Amino acid sequence: MKHSPRLWTVLSCSLLVASLVAGATACGSGDDPLSARPFDAGDQVAFNQPKGGRPVDPDRPLEVTAKAGSGRITDVTVVDTQGRRLAGELSAKGDRWHSTVPMAAGVHYAVTVTTENERGAPGRRTLMFETTPAKKVLKVEFGPDAGKYGVGQPITAELNEPVKDKAARALVERGLIVDTPSGVEGAWHWVDDKHLHFRPKEYWPAHSTISVRSNLEGVKISDELHGAISKPLKLEIGDRVEAITDASSHHLTFKRNGEVINTIPVTTGKPGFSTRNGVKVVLGKQYYVQMRGDTVGIGGSEYYNLPVYYATRVTWSGEYVHAAPWSVDSQGYENVSHGCTGMSTGDAAWFYANITEGDIVKVVNSIGNDMEPFGNGFGDWNVDWKDWREGSALLKGTQDGRSPVDQARLRPQV
Q: Which position among 226, 250, 322, 338 bears the catalytic label?
C-alpha cells in the first residue's frame, strides 16, 4: 500500500508527540519541586503578632516577613470571620508583606502565607489570632420590621452614635448592603447624623424581595469608633398599590398593579386646613381612633372629639384616610375636613381591607403645602432622584448614580 506524503507527516508528528509524552512520564514527578505537597513554612516566615494568643491591637499593621536565606513569600491571604479580606502589599523581593488598612476590632482572623524555597518548592503557613474589642461601637438598627410591605416602603437605618465626617459617612454607607432585584437602582440618603433612608429610583418592583445587612462589624469608622454586629432585615414587597386623591375633583382613584379597581368620592382639607400635596406612604392602620382637635393644635370653634373607624395613617402629625359618616353629603363635592381624607363608612372599610403598610397614598391639586420629605412620615418620594443622590456620601457629585468605585469597575479597558 502506498502512503501519501501528507499521511506520513501526520504519522511522524503523532509518533513524536507520543515519544515526548513517554519521556516526560519516565522522568517521574519527584524531580519537579512544584509537584510536591506544600511543606510547613513555620521556620521560613515570621509574624509581628505577640505569642501566647493574646488579642492584638487592630490599629497595628500586620506584618509577615521571610527569614533571611529561606526563600520568599509568594502570597498572603488574611480573612476575618465575616469573610472580609484584609488588604495588603507584598514587596517586589517577596521578603515582606504588610496590611495597608486597619484591621477590624473584636474579630478573629485567619492568615495563610504561601512561600517557596530556593529550589522552588512550595510552602505554607497559617496563623489564627483575634483583635481586641472596640471601646466604642456604632450600632445600626434597620427598619421597618421584617414582613410584607407596599412598593413605596423606604428602608431606614438608625445609628446609635452620630457620624458627621464625610469620609466616615462613606465608610458607613459602603458597609450597609441592600440586595435589590436585578436592574433596580437605589441609594442611601443621610437624613441627619444618625439616620439614613434607602429607596430605589422608582418604586420597588411588585412581588420582589429586599434584603438588608451590615458589613461594619469591627470596621474602624473613626479613631474611637468601630462598627458593631447588626441584625439583618428581609422585606417582601406585595402588589403595586397607589391611592391617588384629586382634591379638586374630590375623588380617590385606587389602582392595583396599574389597573384602576375603584373610584371613591372623598372630602379633603378645607381652606386653612388643606391636605398636603404629594406622595405619602402608609404608616399603619387602626380600626378605631379617638380623634381630638387639641392633639394637633386645633381648638375653639374648630375643635372636635370624634370616634373614627377604619383609619389608615399617612403622617405622624395625624393625617389619615378614614370613615367620615358626618360628611357624606360633601364627599365628591367639596372639601370640609381638617386635613384628613374622609369617605363613607362602607368605602373606608373597603379601603382599609385593600391597603397595607408601605402602599402609596398621593394627593394632587390641593391648595395645601407639600408633604415634608422627612420627619412626618415617609415623604421620601417627593425628593427628586438627583437631589436624593446628593444626600449620599458615595454618590454625591456623580452623574449617573454610581459611586466612583462602580464607575471605575465599569470603565472600558484600553
A: 322
